[in-house]
Amino acid sequence: MKSKRVQYFMLICIIIILGLVSRKISFVPLFVGDILWAIMILFIIQFLFIDIELKVLFLVSLMICYMVEISQLYQVDWLNYIRMTTPGRLVLGQGFLWSDIISYTVGITIVTFIKAARLKQIGKRSR
Questions:
Q1: Predicted confidence band at 127 (pLDDT cuts at 50, 70, 90)?
Q2: Running DSSP on this structure, what letter comes out for residue 51?
């Protein structure tokens, strides 16, 4: 179990680096960073709840991403000050966009399908 957590921690670190780099390279579309952010959220949930059921992982990850995006509609001074900092901007975002919702859905769906296919393969091998 500990080795799974290490693997997920490493994946989270790699995704963070890729996401930050994607924002610095002008020819990489912005939605790539949003997809990576959503995938990072999924792996953080997986890291915290190592044996979480795939359907629950999918739903919890999507709900967290959606809630963060929807929270950007809430504009109060103290929260906007946090959003103006680099960590605040990276974690909370700056403005609501429907395209971000789509990007989050795409990223989490892709990883979920990959994980489901991998689980199916493992199940076939153990028979």
A1: low
A2: T
